[in-house]
C-alpha cells in the first residue's frame, strides 16, 4: 500500500457518477491528507457515498449554474479552510480513478521544482475498445510530454500558486484549466506533464448524441476562454486556432459557396462539399475513417457552442447557457 501524503489534499467533483465516484474516492481516500467532494445536485446517492468514504462534502447552491470551474473553486476554498497547511491539491473528476503511485510522484516533482505550479501525467481511457467515442477520447489524452502550456481536469497544483492568481474562474463553462494555466504562466509559474500514469477515465460514451454535446460544450469553452484572454497581452489569446477552424469549415466555407453560387455562378455551390470531402479523406488517411468523420462533424458542433456563447455575450449574459453535466 502506498504511503499517505499529509501534505497533499484532493478535490473531487461530480454529478450522478454512481459507482464511478466510489472508485474515484477509494483511489485517493487513503493517500491524500484530506479529501473534499463537491457535488452538483446529484440524485443517485453520491453525497452519502462520499461521506461514507470519509470525504468532506460541499453541495453547490442550485440557484447558480453548475460548472466544473465553480465546483473546483469552491472545493479548493473548502479544502484549505479545513487544512490550511496543505502544500498541494490534486483535482480529480469523479469519473476518474487515480493511479496508485501518482500522488507521490507528483508531490516529489513539485518538492524538487519550486518554479512549477502544476504537474500532470498520463490519463487513459478505461474501456477504449467499448465504443469508437471512447477510443477517440483515449487518443485525445495522448498529449506531448514535457513542459506544457496547460493541463486538463486532473492535475496536482501548488496551493500557494493557486491562491496567488485567484484560483479557477468559476464562470467558465469549459476550458477552465487552460485559462487558469494562462494566468499562472503570466505570473511566472511553469506547468509540467510527466510521462507517468496519472488517472484512468471512464467516459462511457456510447451514443453520437453524447459526443455531439461534448463537442458543443468544447466550442462554448473555446469562445469563452478566447474572449477572456484575448486582451491580456500574455502569450496570446487561448483557442484562437480552434475557433478559426470551426468558423472556416462550418460557417465561412458553406456560406461563401452559397453566396458565390447566387452572385457569380451556380457551380460554386459544389466548392463546399468538395472541400469537406477532401479534408475528410486527408484526415481518414491519418486517423481512420470514423475519427475523421467525427472530426469533420465536430466543427459544426463547436460552431454551435461558440455561437451560443457569443449570442449570450451580446445579450449581456452567458450564464446558464450550458451546464456542467
Structural class: alpha/beta
Estimate nothing, just give the exact number of structural domains. Answer: 2
Q: How large is the count of helical segments?
A: 11
Number of strands: 9
Mean pLDDT: 91
Largest sheet: 9 strands, mixed
CATH architecture of the largest domain: Alpha-Beta Complex
The top level CATH class name of the largest domain: Alpha Beta
CATH superfamily of the largest domain: Spore Coat Polysaccharide Biosynthesis Protein SpsA, Chain A
Distance between the termini: 34 Å
* β-strand amount: 15-25%
Helix content: 40-55%
- Low-pLDDT segments, ≥5 res: 319-323
**Radius of gyration (Å):** 21 Å
- The helix/strand series, from N terminus to C terminus, equals EHEHEHEEHEHEEHHEHHHH
* Topology-level CATH name of the largest domain: Spore Coat Polysaccharide Biosynthesis Protein SpsA, Chain A
The gross shape turns out to be elongated
Description:
There is one protein chain. The chain has 325 residues and is of the alpha/beta class. It has two domains: 5-206, Spore Coat Polysaccharide Biosynthesis Protein SpsA, Chain A, CATH 3.90.550.10; 207-325, no CATH class. 49% of the residues lie in helices and 18% in strands. It has eleven helices and nine strands. The protein has helices at 19-29, 46-52, 68-82, 102-112, 132-140, 159-164, 176-186, 208-229, 240-263, 271-287, 289-314, and strands at 5-14, 32-39, 56-59, 88-93, 96-98, 116-125, 146-148, 155-158, 190-201. Strands 1, 2, 3, 4, 5, 6, 7, 8 and 9 form a nine-stranded mixed β-sheet that branches. β1 (5-14), α1 and β2 (32-39) form a beta-alpha-beta unit. α7 runs parallel beside α8 (208-229), α9 packs antiparallel against α10 and α10 crosses α11 (289-314). It is elongated, with a radius of gyration of 21 Å. The model is unreliable at 319-323 (pLDDT under 50).
